[in-house]
Specification:
With 215 residues, this protein is an alpha/beta fold. 51% of the residues lie in helices and 14% in strands. It contains ten helices and six strands; from the N terminus they run βαβαβαβαβαβααααα.
Length: 215
């Protein structure tokens, strides 16, 4: 008989974390929770002592979307670690960020027990996993439906992106849109994060590639 899949759970809501431990603990014998953690730092410390096969990680900690950062740190230190991200968000930008930062799977906290366990087993087997809602979002994005790439950006971010890609200074963009320079800089940070662009040129390429320049 093969050894059970060793699972670690990371979430800053203690009651939710305890319920997850119980849920997986009452599943079949092929799954075993070896530890849980309430923060990214605690997860790093425990992973150094006992590395799990699969780490189930929450995306939002104390109201802040830092699960992606925690995932990136863990995957950098432990290249073989397989992460399944849990989130209340179904936004394509969040799914994209999660997978870019090393997660092998993404699933909503709203799914049922059976699908969650299926996701854990899939990730443990080296597969990529998206729950049905996330998969639908990705398919729509890839095929140009409601979730097309342009929808990664809000209307205001797209407005800023179009101006930013043409080369004006931050001050000029702010004056043109009647917003503060700090707000423009915040939008640009979000635009780069969502599109993966590292420069004005790459933002312009994103807009051109996805036919957004004439919207």
């Amino acid at each position: 008989m093969s050894s059970p899949v060793r699972i670690a759970l990371v979430d800053d809501h203690e009651i939710f974390l305890e319920s997850m431990v119980a849920l997986i603990g009452n599943a079949d014998d092929d799954l075993k929770v070896i530890w849980s953690a309430l923060s990214g730092e605690e997860a790093l410390d425990k992973a150094r002592e006992q590395l799990p096969d699969v780490l189930v990680l929450d995306y939002t900690f104390k109201g802040k979307a830092i699960g992606g950062e925690i995932c990136e740190r863990l995957c950098r230190e432990f290249p073989g670690l397989k992460v399944l991200m849990l989130s209340v968000s179904e936004e394509i930008a969040v799914i994209r960020e999660t997978m870019q930062k090393g997660a092998r799977g993404y699933t909503s906290k709203e799914i049922g027990k059976a699908e969650l366990l299926r996701g854990i087993r899939a990730v443990a087997a080296g597969e990529y996993f998206l729950d049905q809602t996330a998969l639908g979002k990705v398919v729509a994005w890839l095929t140009g439906g409601k979730g097309k790439p342009g929808c990664l950006l809000t209307d205001r971010e797209l407005e800023v992106a179009k101006l930013y890609s043409k080369g004006p200074k931050i001050r000029d963009i702010a004056q043109s849109l009647f917003i503060s320079e700090d707000t423009v800089e915040s939008h640009i940070k979000n635009i780069r994060s969502k599109t993966g662009a590292a420069s004005r040129y790459e933002v312009a390429e994103f807009i051109q590639r996805h036919c957004l320049s004439e919207e």
